[in-house]
Amino acid sequence: MLAAERSLIRLAALCAAVPIVLGAAVVAHDAPTAFAGADPDIEVADGRYWIYPTNSGEGGAARLYAWTSRDLRTWQRDRELLRLDDIDWIADDGAPRHFLWAPDMVAANGRYYLYYSVGPQNPTPSRIGVATCDTPAGPCSDSGKPLITGGNGFEAIDPAVFVDPRDGSRYLYAGGSAGATLRMWRLNPDLTSLDREMPVETPPQFTEGAFVHERNGTYYLSYSHGSWRHATYSVHYATSRSPSGPWAYRGAILTSDGRFKGPGHHACLRDPGTGRWHIAYHRWEGEQGDGPYKGQRRIVVQPITYGPDGAIEPIAMQ
Q1: Where is the secretion signal located (predicted)?
Q2: What is the domain range of residue 166?
Q3: Per the domain annotation, does 168 fall within a domain?
């Protein structure tokens, strides 16, 4: 493990593997809507905040981009990270069309690793790939083969990597939607291959988008529930003393209200400059009723508040 990674672990800035190398400190300000997109991962590197979303630029869901900000208020789209055409193992296999979504960026070994989903599930299995990147803004080069392939009722979607602050172990969580099944693997040190699958519980109300972070010795597994195009989409969480459970269900923290619908598919970040925790998520704006909704979702970053007992307080959307 590199010294930069160890320093981040000591800071406990770990949410979906946050050993991202820090430059100058950044100071966060509360900021509602950021930009159009979905499924955000949020990180800090080189003195800036980074968001890695789905469907946030030219090429739609056939390309992945990085977005960056110095204050969590003003965001700019950075360079293209990866495009579908650059992934050789996605062949003409009978699927009408393939898509890239739900990226997760991780720093380790002096490099950056971009995990992503490839779908749809039918008529071919969904898959999870990983690419190695030179910087948090890319460019990224695919590993040359899928890391995980779905099938037998399991959808290989929504990868999220978590580094355990106790021993530096790196775990990959994935799965959900139709099968609504969570799975977990230990990654090898190269981060582009699997060591072994780990037993893990699928928590109550789980649909997709699992995310793990640790705070004061408690492991928080948060995830999306419901249908992504409907008002049922929401974020729930459970806690454990272990990264694999058993999980104690704690309830919902983000739900639809009169102004905003379907909040979900989130990521968390402890800001090393302020010590505050934040959640990045997407939602539908300007919609009425229960759905299905159409158009563009928007990405939002808001603070997380913990109660005296460590419970995450429900988040009022702004």
Answers
A1: 1-30
A2: 3-304
A3: yes
